[in-house]
Design brief:
- The protein has helices spanning about 15-35, 55-60, 75-85, 110-115, 190-195, 280-285; strands at about 5-10, 35-40, 55, 65-70, 90-95, 120-135, 140-145, 150-155, 160-165, 170-175, 180-185, 205-210, 220-225, 230-235, 240-245, 250-255, 260-270.
- The protein is α+β, with helices and mostly antiparallel strands and about 300 residues long.
- It has 2 domains: about 5-120 and about 275-285, 3-Layer(aba) Sandwich (Rossmann fold); about 130-265, Tumour Suppressor Smad4, CATH 2.60.200.
- A 6-stranded antiparallel beta sheet has the order 7-6-17-14-9-10, covered by helices on one side.
- Helix 3 (about 75-85) links the parallel strand 4 and strand 5.
- The longest helix has 17 residues, at about 15-35.
- The relative contact order is 0.15.
């Protein structure tokens, strides 16, 4: 940021006591610094008069210079959708479980937010994906995703049969529960549980990870981040597939339609505390380096 932030929007599920605790710690601190605090007008957090201004969600990011997401990675993904078209930087406070994206610990919230307000954080630009459902008459629906686009079956016990195409070239015919198309940011999310690789976030690649494939030869692959991925259902009795972008429903994919996932120019800016190290984050979250020989930190 060229100048210190004047208005800070807080995003979180404030019905969660841990999230509310962090917000109530931060609000008087922002007031002392002369920074306006903005809260969504549909959240139940009870705050003393004068500590925060209630704002409609669709106006929240328009009026903020900084967004603080308090919660887990799901909260940060929600906040990322809000800032995607506006260029407002985003910092995540971890009050969830794993927290690959929300990397500030609760005890460090005041110092980290101070650094973000003053422009002393490390800026980390992450690219977004766009998913489109395309029918015979054109685009039916579309949405952005930071982590992943997921095609999955709707009926429990019924397998999906589908084809994948990359840049117009046929790749494979799959049978299984679905497919994850993940950005490098999303490689540590659903794709990881499907056997996909961990990808350093600065790499411009996509991961295609089949979900519970019905053959051992159907393995995750990694392709250029500039690729356009197309998925087409094979028409079978009672075939129904559902698409989500970062866990939010995009809609149904029907035989005859196709799912397209492609890169966009849209990016979000994550803020990290100074001396942030991605591999230190991995060691912390995945419990690497325990009991081995390694350089002391």
């Amino acid at each position: 940021m060229a100048s210190p932030a004047q208005a800070c929007a807080l995003i979180g599920r404030f019905s969660d006591a841990r999230v509310a605790e962090s917000a109530l710690t931060l609000l008087p601190h922002l007031q002392k610094r002369g920074v306006r605090a903005l809260l969504p007008d549909d959240e139940p957090l009870s705050v003393p008069d004068g500590l925060a201004e209630r704002v409609a969600v669709d106006e929240l990011v328009e009026r903020a210079d900084l967004v603080v997401a308090i919660g887990g990675d799901g909260t940060l993904l929600y906040a990322a959708r809000l800032v995607a078209h506006r260029g407002v930087p985003l910092i995540g406070i971890n009050r969830g479980r794993l927290g690959f994206l929300t990397d500030v610990l609760p005890q460090d919230i005041l110092g980290a937010v101070d650094a973000a307000i003053e422009g002393r954080c490390e800026r980390d630009e992450r690219s977004l994906l766009e998913a489109r459902v395309v029918g015979p008459r054109g685009v039916i629906s579309s949405a952005l995703a930071l982590n992943d686009v997921v095609l999955q079956k709707w009926e429990t016990g019924r397998m999906l049969d589908f084809e994948t195409w990359i840049d117009g070239v046929y790749v494979n015919t799959h049978g299984g529960d679905g497919l994850v198309v993940a950005s490098s940011t999303g490689s540590t999310a659903y794709a990881l549980s499907c056997g996909g690789p961990i990808v350093a976030p600065h790499l411009d690649v996509l991961v295609l990870a089949p979900i519970c494939p019905h053959t051992l030869s159907d393995r995750p692959i990694m392709v250029s981040g500039r690729s356009v991925i197309a998925v087409k259902l094979i028409d079978r009795p009672d075939t129904r597939a559902h698409i989500t972008c970062d866990g939010v429903s995009l809609g149904e994919l029907l035989p005859g339609d196709r799912l397209e996932v492609h890169p966009t120019m849209q990016k979000i800016t994550l803020l990290h505390p100074s001396k942030f190290e991605y591999y230190r984050l991995l060691r912390s979250k995945l419990h690497w380096g325990r009991g081995g020989f390694h350089q002391s930190e």
